[in-house]
Amino acid sequence: MIPPGLSEMERSHYETLINFVAINNKRKVPRVVVITDLAKDYDDLAAMIVLKELHRLGVVQLLGFIANLMPAEERTRFGRGALDSLGLERIPIAAGTSGFPRSARKKHNVLQYEFDCEFMATDARVKQACGESGEDLLRALCNEAATDSEKKLTLVLISSLEDIYTFSQKEPDLLRKAVSNIVLQGGYTISKDGKLEPDEAANNNRYDFDAARYFHTFMDQNEIPSTVYTKVAAFATPLTSALFAEMAETNHPLGRHLRKVQVAQDLSFYKKSCEPEPGDRFAPFMDREWFLKNKTDWFEAQKRKADQEPAPPPEGDEVIPYLTKVIVYDALAAVGASGADALEALKVLTQTNTAPRHQIVGVAGPPEDPGVDPEQMGTLLSALLKGSLLSCPPQGPS
C-alpha cells in the first residue's frame, strides 16, 4: 500500500496510517463531504489529492464534493476530471452556488490559469456521474446520514460558506441530525462565554460575512463540534516548490497542473502585492515585503550575498526563481478530516486553545501558537501529495 518513490520519513507516515487503520478496524471512519472552490487556488486541488489518499488507505470515506464560486459549473467540470484521473470515478461532484449572496454585485475575477488544464471533464460526463445540483447532492447525503448514527457526516468547508449557510436555513433539522463534525479552513475566535465569532479577515468568511456569522452561530447553538485551520497554521507549514516539481515528475496530469499553476498563481499574487494602494492587494497587509518574507526565499538569498551591494526587490517575473515556499491552506483541513484519533497517531498537532466543542489550529499572537508540528505536518502532506499520485494507475505519456 506504500507507493514507491517516497523518502524514509514519508514512508514512516504511511506506516503509521496503515497500522492505525489495522489496529482500529472497528472505528467510525469519518464519512466526508467537501465544499470547495476548485481551481481558484492550487490548494483546493491539493486538498482533493490528500483526501483521495486518505480514502484509499481507509482513514476516511469520501462521499462527495460540491464545487462553488462562480463559475461553479466550470469548477465542477474541473473537479470531475480531477476525480476521474485519481481513480475516483464513482465519487459524485455537483455544482454549488456562486459563492456570493444573491443580492450582491460581487464577482470573482477568473484568472487565466484557473481552467488551463488537460483534464476538464465534459458536461456529459458531469451529468452522467451526478445529475444533481450541489444542494440536492448534499440533501441526499444528509438524508442517508440522518437515519443512522453510524453514518453521520464530517463536512470539510474550504471555500465560501454561502452553500452551507443556505442549506442550514432550508434544512436546519436535517443538517443538525446528519452532521457530527465540521472542519473548516478559515478563522474564528471563541469568546469568553464560548461563542464562535468568525474572523472577517479570513477569505472564506469574506465572500458573505453575514452568511459566515449565521453559520458559525448555527454550529454553536446546535453543538456541532468543529475545528478551524487558520492561515497561522498554514504559514507554519510551508511546503516547497521542489515538492511540486517532484509531483510533476510523476507524470500524473494533476502533478503537472499543480506545478504550472503554482508558478502562475504565485506570480500573479506577487504582482498584486506590489500594488501601492492597499485596497488593490489580495489583502491590505499582504504587501511586497510580506510576500517576499512568506512566499519566497528572497531575503535568505540576500543574506547569502552579505558581501555584495543590497539588491532591489525583484520586479515582475524576476521573482520566479525565488518562489520556493508553497502554502497549501486547504490541505491542512483535508488532513483534519482524518479524525482526532488519527491525528493523535500522526502527531501533527500540538496543544491549542480549545473550548469543549471547538478547536482552533493556528492562533494569532501574541503569543502565536501555530497549533501544528511544522516538520510532522509538512512531511505528512509531502507524503500524501506524492503518494496519492504515485499510487494512481499509469496516466500515459504527457
UniProtKB/TrEMBL annotation:
<protein>
    <recommendedName>
        <fullName>Inosine/uridine-preferring nucleoside hydrolase domain-containing protein</fullName>
    </recommendedName>
</protein>
<dbReference type="GO" id="GO:0016799">
    <property type="term" value="F:hydrolase activity, hydrolyzing N-glycosyl compounds"/>
</dbReference>
<dbReference type="InterPro" id="IPR036452">
    <property type="entry name" value="Ribo_hydro-like"/>
</dbReference>
